[in-house]
Design brief:
With about 140 residues, the chain is an alpha+beta fold. Helices cover about 35% and strands about 20% of the residues. It is built from 4 helices and 7 strands; from the N terminus they run ββααβααββββ. The strands form 3 sheets. Strands 3-5-4 form a 3-stranded antiparallel sheet. A two-stranded antiparallel ribbon has the order 1-2. A two-stranded antiparallel ribbon has the order 6-7. Helix 3 crosses helix 4.
C-alpha cells in the first residue's frame, strides 16, 4: 500500500510505490474521465443528493445517472447512505475538498493527485432534441 505523506496544507498525500497504487490511481482518474460523471461530482460538491435530485438537476435519464453513480462508487469516489426508501449519495470524505478557494475553485483529492474544479455550478439541464421523422 502507498505510504502517506503530509502536504503543505496538512492533507494526506499518498506516495505511489507499487503497481497496485498506480492501478488504484488510474481507476479513480478513469472514473472521472467522463463529462457526465464530472457533472455529477460537481453537483455532489454542493451537497448530498438522491438519484432523483441529480436526475432533475442535470436533466439526465435516471438509468444513466444510476449507472454513472455506480462507476463512481466502484472507484470509491462516492458513498451512499440509506434514508428511508431513498439512497443519498455524497462524495467520499477522503475525496471531498475542505473548501473552495477565493477564485471559486474546489479541489478534490484522489490520494495520488488533486484536481481543481473551477466550475462549481452544475451545468444547465440537457434538453432532448425533438425526434425527426422521415417524411411519408
Amino acid at each position: 500500500m502507498a505510504s502517506t505523506k503530509r502536504s503543505e496544507k496538512g492533507t494526506p498525500k499518498l506516495a505511489m510505490k507499487t503497481e497496485s497504487d498506480f492501478e488504484s490511481c488510474a481507476a479513480r482518474l478513469k472514473a472521472l474521465a467522463d463529462p457526465d460523471r464530472l457533472q455529477i461530482v460537481i453537483s455532489l460538491l454542493q451537497g448530498d443528493k438522491s438519484v432523483t435530485s441529480l436526475t432533475d438537476e442535470l436533466g439526465m435519464p435516471m438509468d444513466k445517472v444510476s449507472h454513472h453513480l455506480g462507476v463512481l462508487r466502484a472507484a470509491n469516489l462516492v458513498q451512499t447512505q440509506k434514508q428511508g426508501k431513498f439512497v443519498i449519495y455524497s462524495l467520499a470524505p477522503e475525496v471531498a475538498a475542505a473548501g473552495a478557494s477565493a477564485t471559486g475553485t474546489k479541489t478534490i483529492d484522489l490520494g495520488c493527485c488533486q484536481l481543481d474544479l473551477v466550475q462549481l455550478v452544475a451545468p444547465p439541464k440537457k434538453t432532448r432534441a425533438p425526434s425527426r421523422r422521415a417524411p411519408s
